[in-house]
Amino acid sequence: MIRYALTRLALLVVGLLVASVLIFLSLRVLPGDVALLIAGTDSTPAQVAAIRERLGLDAPLPAQYLDWMGGLVRGDLGSSLVNGSSVAGELADKARITVPLGILSLGIALVIAVPFGVLSAVRRRRPDGTALSVVAQALAAVPAVWAGMMLVVVFAVWLGLLPAQGFPRGGWSDPGAALRALILPALTIGIIEGAMLMRFVRSATLQAIGQDYVRTAAAKGLTRTQALVRHGLPNVALSVVTVLGLQVAGILVGAVVIEQLFTLPGIGRMLVADVGARDLPKVQGELFVLTGFVLIVGFLVDLLHRALDPRQRETAA
């Protein structure tokens, strides 16, 4: 297990390095001159050149990359070109909205996916099981923006139960108001991600139902449901753990869109604004932190899967 963890850790470091190179190069090919954008359209070439020199944008790309990586190693993500604020500080501030939104969305997705996925598999030959499967396929194909707008119309406009947009000025000083502001965005992401995960749970449950150990347990006197719950669902849980890393990535991508729709001042909304302003240090830092978070979640999921599944340990031995 220790050797496997060290191998995966080495792959994680390589993945972070590759991601940093791709992020750095992709931002350098964007059209436009950052120095000219900061100086303004009325600036002289000398003023633009001075800004470019001050920001280090006239240095060769390898030197710029090494300078950025040196800051990352020291935990310094740089400063904004627009307002001079610390990138790490702004990320920490915006994470107070995006992280709770992601956790709430993931919880909703699991609450939808696990029970309904198992139920649709167990009752696959009955109308309700077929209906659940069809609904899951339809919801998985729904665009997040449209789903969010429909939830706003129903719960904010018609019923008046929840706020349609925004986040309390005092943040989490009023936890009730803050939580109410996150419910509709989290439902939007959670329902769509839950529908996609539900299809996977249904498929894993169907495989478990067909396994010999489940049939053997049923032959020894257990009902099919008891045999599935006692012997099949632990294997289904292992399969669900495997795809949780992908679900986290999907939730992060969904948060970028949903924070725009619900005007939530989180990391996703900040990222879109910074790309528009060509604030390269902030965009680099934000993309690297988000990418690193997804890679670390994948690393932890792999370790958890390895620890829970005795077959993998036996294969390695």
From TrEMBL:
The chain crosses the membrane at residues 101-122, 134-161, 181-201, 236-258, 287-304. Keywords: Cell membrane, Membrane, Transmembrane, Transmembrane helix, Transport. InterPro entries: BPD_transp_1_N (IPR045621), MetI-like (IPR000515), MetI-like_sf (IPR035906). Residues 95-305 form the ABC transmembrane type-1 domain. It is a multi-pass membrane protein. It holds the Pfam family BPD_transp_1_N. It comes from the Bacteria. It is found in: Cell membrane. Its main location: membrane. This is ABC transporter permease. It comes from Microbacterium wangchenii. The lineage of its organism: Bacteria, Bacillati, Actinomycetota, Actinomycetes, Micrococcales.
